[in-house]
Design goal:
Blueprint lengths: L1 H7 L7 H9 L2 E7 L6 H10 L9 H6 L6 H11 L6 H17 L2 E8 L1 H5 L5 H19 L2 E9 L4 H11 L10 E7 L11 H9 L3 E6 L5 H9 L5 E4 L7 H9 L3 E4 L1 H6 L11 H6 L3 E4 L4 H4 L3 H11 L4 H13 L5 H17 L1
The structure holds adenine and zinc ion.
The site of zinc ion has 6 residues, from β1.
Length: 355
């Protein structure tokens, strides 16, 4: 919330009816790291339960440390924070907290990243990670009709060999999690870790029939976006905001309607932009790209889905039509079967007619 407040402090407030329109707008979240939803309060509670020492005396002190200068300064804290996750129940509670929070934002479907290497490196079994996350997602589906999927992401600061080893560990679980585990992603430090580094493991995942996505063009150059498409054969680009530096790439992204999962508050917190009013989301949208709004690591960046929508709506003065385009793009960009996608699009149409 803090980043949102700073960015709009010199921007006129949104009309109350537009705020409530955004809050109730049905939406899909396609760029969310479940480890990035670990709020300081839960992080402290898990540290205590699992006897993990923290270098912070209080929740407030920890929150005060969330002042990032770039992606790496965030990743250092994010990986350290994830060390409190030890048991299946811990992963369950973290995931359930995210579901409660995103249902309140009227997120109707979420495709969630998880980073097994962050945990297996510390001796946590990969089955523990899958099981805790999936138990929460299945419970939310059965109790509330909350629709979701899991995207297992490789850490790009690690080697391709280590990514292959993670894939080998995970594949025996595939049948057990067939209802949820639909895709493979690529995240962590982008600069100096180009898509080609993971060409072989992505080719294998493609053969295995997974959906493919990758972070590209967050801090890295537009060539990484092009190579994520041409070398890794991804179907969506996570972030992709630096694509704007390459007009040929922009034309292609628009013509092929390749979804970009943009994360406005993340971009502000990680200094990809220094002012939300300068964010290129509206320009990308107007250039015909399939832009979506997402929260990335909401516990660290100051807001969940609605905070992201409200921040761009206020700073970029987005109209209802533009906001609906963003929500529509989010449903169209899901990996849901056509009928389920259509159902969500109809729900969105119904909402627009009623408001
Ligand atoms: N914004 C981001 N970029 C790259 N890797 C990440 N892992 C978690 N959040 C990330
Ligand atoms: Zn991300």
């Amino acid at each position: 919330m803090e980043a949102y407040m700073n960015s709009i402090s010199t921007t006129p407030p949104l009309a109350a009816d537009l705020v409530s329109f955004i809050e109730g707008l049905p939406k899909a979240e396609l760029h969310l790291h479940i480890e990035g939803t670990l709020e300081p309060e839960l992080l402290f509670a898990l540290a205590q339960r699992n006897n993990v020492a923290l270098p912070y005396a209080s929740v407030e002190e920890l929150r005060a440390a969330y002042a990032f200068t770039d992606l790496q300064s965030f990743l250092d804290l994010y990986y350290a924070g994830a060390a409190v996750l030890q048991t299946e129940q811990d992963f369950y509670e973290m995931t359930m907290a995210y579901i409660v929070r995103s249902r309140a934002d009227n997120v109707r479907h979420a495709e969630i990243f998880f980073d097994p290497q962050t945990h297996t490196e510390r001796g946590i079994g990969i089955d523990v990670v899958f099981s805790g996350i999936a138990r929460a997602l299945r419970e939310a589906r059965d109790k509330h009709g909350f629709s979701s999927a899991m995207i297992m992401s490789f850490l790009r600061h690690m080697s391709e060999e280590e990514a292959f080893a993670t894939l080998e560990q995970a594949l025996p679980l595939r049948a057990e999690y067939r209802d949820l585990w639909i895709g493979i992603g690529l995240d962590s430090a982008e600069r100096g870790n180009p898509p080609e580094k993971f060409a072989r493991v992505f080719a294998r995942c493609r053969e295995l029939g997974f959906h493919l996505v990758a972070h590209a063009g967050e801090e890295g150059p537009p060539e990484y976006v092009r190579d994520a498409l041409d070398v890794l054969h991804v179907e969506r680009i996570d972030h992709g905001v630096r694509s704007e530096e390459d007009p040929v790439l922009m034309k292609r992204l628009a013509a092929e309607r390749i979804p970009l999962t943009v994360c406005p508050l993340s971009n502000l917190k990680l200094c990809v932009v220094d002012d939300m009013r300068k964010h290129n989301l509206a320009r990308l949208l107007h250039a015909g790209l399939a832009v979506t709004v997402n929260s990335d690591d909401p516990a660290y960046f100051g807001g969940y889905m609605n905070a992201n929508f409200l921040a761009v709506a206020a700073s970029l003065r987005l109209s209802r039509t533009e906001l609906v385009m963003l929500a529509r793009n989010s449903f169209e960009a899901t990996f849901l079967p056509a009928a389920a996608k259509q159902q969500l699009l109809l729900e969105l149409d119904g909402y627009c007619m009623a408001h």
